[in-house]
Design a protein that fits this description.
166 residues, mainly alpha, binds heme C, Four Helix Bundle (Hemerythrin (Met), subunit A), 0% strand
Amino acid sequence: MRSYFIIAGIMCLFIVYASCSGNHAGQNQQPAPQTNESGDNTYVPGLGEFMNTIQLHHSKLWFEGLNQNWPLARYETDEMKETFAGLQKYVTGRPEVEDVPMINASIDSMEIAIASKNLSRFKSAFTLMTNACNNCHYATNHAFIVITIPTQPPVTNQQFEIKDEK
Ligand code: HEC
């Protein structure tokens, strides 16, 4: 009779343990995937991810301009504009996005410099653009993100010199 109670007691303990560990498993579940405004699971890059793409365009643009590769520099500027437009469209819930137009005047200057195929104008427009990047970082409490004029090409698998202007 005594051993019967011991076995029943062990079984009770086991049931309690199993239900407790079940709860823990529930707590350890992965958080639900991030959803966009419409509530589906479509992936939307964050503001920082758009910025990393913009940083790459900014850096490539410098070497394209230095090499007076104007068709490529024009293309790169267009890509940068598209990335800014994309973040304005898709990044929701970040009030900083309202400050994106701070970059517009420098993009206009860049387009004029490229159209006039003028290296010194390009350099001034690039400095203006770099300052505009930093002004917005400052205005949006990200003054610790400092963009500079690059000293080395960002990639080694693309040609920035112009070979055959078409
Ligand atoms: C809206 C104003 C604004 C403008 C204009 C702007 N940025 Fe930013 N940038 C931000 C904000 C805000 C962040 C912080 C993003 C975050 O919190 O994820 C940021 C972050 C960054 C980062 C850090 C990304 C990372 O994850 O490491 C880089 C690099 C960057 N910006 C580059 C640039 C460059 C280059 C330009 C100019 C061509 C530029 N930004 C123009 C607002 C701006």
